[in-house]
Amino acid sequence: MPLPTEGTITFLFTDIVGSTRLWEAFPEAMRAALAIHDTLLQREIESHGGYVFKTVGDAFCAAFASTTAAVETAVAIHLGLRNLPAIAPDFPPLRVRIGIHCGQAEVRDNDYFGPTVNRVARLLSAGHGEQILLSQTGYALIHASLPETIHLLDRGIYLLKDLQAPEHIYQVQHSDLPSDFPPLNALNPAITNLPVQTTTFIGRQKEIADIQRLMTATRLLTLTGSGGTGKTRLAQHVAAEQTEQQGIWQIELGPVHDPALVPLAVASVLNLREEPNRPLMQTLLDYLKDRSTLLLLDNCEHLLLACAQLAEAILRHCPKVRLLVTSREALGISGEQTYRVPSLSLPPVTGGIGNEDLLKYEAVRLFVERAVLVKSDFLLTRANSPVLARLCNRLDGIPLALELAAARVRAMPVEQIETRLNDRFRLLTGGSKTTLPQQQTLRALIDWSYDLLTLTEKALLTRLSVFSGGWTLEAAEQVTPGPIHTEGEASPEVEIEEWEVLDLLTALVDKSLVVYDEGAGHSRYRLLETVRQYATEKLTANAEWETFRAKHRDCYLRYVDEHRKQKQAPAQEDVLTAFDREQDNLRMAIECALEEEAGSAAEPPHCLRFVTGLYDYWYRRGLLAEGRHLAERACDFTRKMPPTGARGKLLRLTGNLAWAQGDLTAAEGFYRESLAIVLQGDQKLAIADVYYSLSMVLISQHQFAEAHEFVEQALPLYQEEQDKGGMASCYNEFGLIAAETDDAPVAFAWWEKALSLYRELNDTMGSAAILVNMGVRAKQTGQYEQARQCLLEALDIHQKAAFRYGIAYIFENLAALAAAEQKPERAAHLFGAFTALFEAMGAKMPPVASEKIATIVAELRQTLGETAFETCFAAGQAFSLEESCAFARKG
């Protein structure tokens, strides 16, 4: 049967009410019943001249050229379902609802699209099982020529979900079908003042489900959250679903500034008048006492006490009334349930995600839909999608901020909007002129919240802006106390004391200006980036930025000093994790130290202490480029300092980072400069460390004789100081030199001594280094299984410690092992994974190692062919770290 494509098309949509419960309770019977249902619907639709153009689960979507035929089909379907034999004992009849609507529709790929299709779907959702609903356009086409057995019942005018125009709905009736149904699942405009929405509602499915669940268990639910998170729109959407209420009324309190006028605002919406010699509150309570009503009290944060008193009175005297409240802070009364509204879901900013998947994130979808409203040809493209992902994250997924940014696409591309976000308070203006003033610009939005704070709350909020990436309570207690400045002048009589910080911080969380995140074993606070920029401006205007930035620097310098004292391996893992959490704060603190001390000759400067304390973290986490950059900046301005041991250590650590990056020439230069300094002192371990470091870089350059001399000078110094870790390092170097000179038995003997010492010290990372060396040499001598076991044991250690630098080299050696075992596809995958991880760390291969890899890769290209090699290599590059490690173990 041909698909109707011209003129007015009548659409008939069906679905089974409660089908999910039936599948759970009667899976076999439901399977049989659904087969009968499908056959019956297909037969009746086609026999009446209809066309089934889509089925989704148990739902049918059909198109007719005749409205009369569609209505007759609906009645025939219900009559047929009522006459079906029982499927199984206790299995209830299938309760199908049907919606019918007429209009024009766009045809594409044998399917229909457009507003007409959307409306019939919403009409269907308003109905109940065994009910047939007909729209006004359908009624107009059929009411004058109805079959004698069919009648139409006027159900009135309703607002359908997400549709702007209301719908006059009719119920199709037949003498052999039920006619008594509950109220429709839609809002009657006569019992609500909820606004008709002019834009689509995006996402929030989890939040809607959560709020609906909570509303069944409480009569007072307060939606809290920072300004612009969409509390009002979400509350309106949920309220519109409460169709069982006799009235749903929104009371907008944003424009109300006098607390005494709150009851009047409610009474005005309900069209109540004051009565002589009677309090308005009493009139209000008497009116609501026996009514099943939902009141939406919107924007209550500036009238908390008055709203709390109103809510408490209603809860006490009006048992059928429910309250849905939006406020940046809870009302704080008995019986109140709160729900914090989060920002919209955000995409990753690392890239590599397609446009279709990107649109699954609510923030992206909102931006795109709103952008199309102001620029109809706006498209999400491969070029602008990474920029849009960054933009959504920088705006913290705040709906208002996204809508204001989307409005700018009429004048500039997404790329330009993103680059201008550093001045977001000028960029993000021009909201709807009909909204509240505090919701028309981003600055006004935060001004509204800021102006409601006390003096001490304002001071704490601005001082918290010196943190980056969040903070702990302990850090806030160290950084934020002190006298409060107003207009650049100190007020010694007013200050924040350390004991006050917790209460003030809690108040800011309650007011939705600070976000509290509770994790496993650690709790943190953070500011949304928009709030942080606003608070930074305020702190700078009060001439306090430099003061509290210095306090922040000192706080994290103490943090680094305390954590670097933990030397044992298990504790070291905890330190790395702690530094991960504080990475943004550490970066900010060391940047502060470098900027302030560039011209200082103090000993030791703060930046030197930072580099010394963070070196292991940078090295083990593979942050080589970042660590070296900061360390070299520290070296540059400490060259004017006296040649002390601290400076010698700084040079050596900087050399280690350069060596790890494969920059052997620079590394050797730092080591020799360090050696010249430490030889002037009497610190034997410092001298031994530099000798050892020089041996490393010389071995990498195949200068084995000179490397051997440096190890021979380092070992007795370590032995004299009883430094077993240093001794093990020297044994390892002797093993490397022996292996490179083709003396495998001697190499393994040295490595066994080193491994024994490392295990005695419980130094897992040292043990892993030895295992890698043993694995490499075993591969070279054809002992492939021993090589694999050594390398995989080392991989386990490195992965547990998240030591990216070590993992990168294990991938390289496992790739070389796979090539030696004639497993070219596996080798290409592993080389791809190795290359991606190594490049991500900002590292490069030493020339000798690079030449070896190039030789193996050339052989793999020849064996596999160029196309096959590139396919495997690219697949390896695309692996996540976890996927790479899992692939490596499959060997």
Features:
five-stranded parallel beta sheet, seven-stranded mixed beta sheet, 891 residues, 12% strand, alpha/beta, 18 strands, single chain
What does this protein look like?
Helices cover 55% and strands 12% of the residues. It contains 39 helices and 18 strands. A 7-stranded mixed β-sheet has the order 2-3-1-4-7-9-8, sandwiched between helices.
- The poorly predicted ranges are none
- Give Rg in angstroms: 36 Å
- Report the average pLDDT across residues: 87
Secondary-structure content class: alpha/beta
Oligomer: single chain
Strand order, biggest sheet? 2-3-1-4-7-9-8
- Taken as a percent bin, the fraction of beta residues is 5-15%
Measure the end-to-end span.
57 Å
Shape by Cα distribution? globular
Number of strands: 18
Which bin fits the share of residues in helices? 55-70%
Structure annotation, total helices: 39
How is the main sheet built? 7 strands, mixed
Summarize the structure.
The protein has 891 residues and is α/β, with parallel strands linked by helices. The strands form five sheets. A seven-stranded mixed β-sheet has the order 2-3-1-4-7-9-8, with helices on both faces.
Secondary-structure blueprint:
Layout lengths: L8 E8 L2 H7 L1 H21 L3 E6 L2 E6 L2 H16 L13 E8 L2 E3 L2 E3 L1 H11 L6 E3 L1 H7 L7 E9 L8 E8 L30 H11 L4 E5 L6 H10 L6 E6 L9 H8 L10 H9 L4 E6 L5 H14 L4 E5 L9 E5 L14 H4 L3 H13 L10 H10 L4 H8 L7 H6 L4 H4 L14 H10 L3 H9 L9 H7 L2 E5 L2 E8 L4 H10 L4 E5 L2 E5 L2 H13 L3 H19 L5 H13 L1 H14 L9 H15 L3 H15 L6 H16 L3 H15 L5 H17 L3 H17 L3 H17 L3 H17 L3 H17 L3 H17 L3 H17 L3 H17 L6 H18 L1 H13 L2 H10 L1
Parallel strand pairs: 4-7, 10-13, 10-14, 11-12, 12-13
Antiparallel strand pairs: 1-3, 1-4, 2-3, 5-6, 7-9, 8-9, 15-16, 17-18
